[in-house]
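In the design runs reported in the main text, the only information available to the sequence generator was the tokenized backbone. The following block is the verbatim input for one such run; it is reproduced so that readers can re-run the procedure and compare outputs position by position.
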């Protein structure tokens, strides 16, 4: 049976992107933080679940790709004279992570699936951004990121399917997607990915 993509239950309001376009420098600073944290997250799974040897090469690859994205965004920021900013707490991510259950296996599954949802939402938003930007180079960069983030969303679900039954994965993924839909609708719009 083919692998199923993570489905978002609500779409981002198309008007959201105007906040990004109008405050693009602030958005870049937030985006850099998101990429840095995504890389660190993938590596943290390697450390916490070192016994899950089949997942380690894929997690390292994900960490490497996210670190490369961080570098690309940082270089873009440097060209604009921007610096990294103190990391502010991402309420979207925090609320999703708070849904992760306790227990070694349950937490592993939930962390993988939360990452899948976050990456899928990021892909959706990078698509919206790529379509709204007038700068052709920036639009192409975000179009490429859109494809890459969608692939990452799939990868986290595929890793989960290596360790858990399809029923367990997709039942929990549906629960998390339902919660994510409410979380994303409750968020205040700001120049940030989430």
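Verbatim output:
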């Amino acid at each position: 049976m083919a692998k199923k993509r993570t489905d978002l239950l609500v779409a981002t309001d198309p008007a959201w992107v105007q906040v990004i376009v109008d405050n693009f420098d602030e958005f870049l600073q937030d985006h850099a933080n998101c990429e840095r944290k995504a890389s660190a997250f993938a590596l943290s799974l390697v450390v916490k679940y070192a016994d899950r040897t089949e997942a380690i090469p894929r997690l390292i690859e994900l960490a490497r790709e996210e670190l490369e994205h961080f570098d690309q965004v940082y270089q873009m920021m440097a060209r604009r004279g921007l610096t990294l900013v103190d990391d502010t707490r991402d309420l979207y991510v925090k609320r999703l992570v708070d849904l992760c259950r306790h227990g070694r296996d349950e937490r592993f599954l939930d962390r993988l699936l939360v990452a899948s949802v976050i990456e899928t939402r990021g892909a959706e938003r990078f698509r919206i951004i790529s379509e709204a930007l007038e700068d052709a180079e920036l639009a192409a960069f975000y179009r490429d990121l859109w494809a890459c983030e969608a692939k990452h969303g799939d990868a986290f679900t595929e890793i989960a399917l290596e360790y858990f039954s399809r029923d367990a994965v997709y039942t929990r993924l549906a629960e998390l997607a339902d919660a994510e839909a409410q979380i994303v609708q409750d968020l205040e719009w700001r120049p940030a990915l989430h």
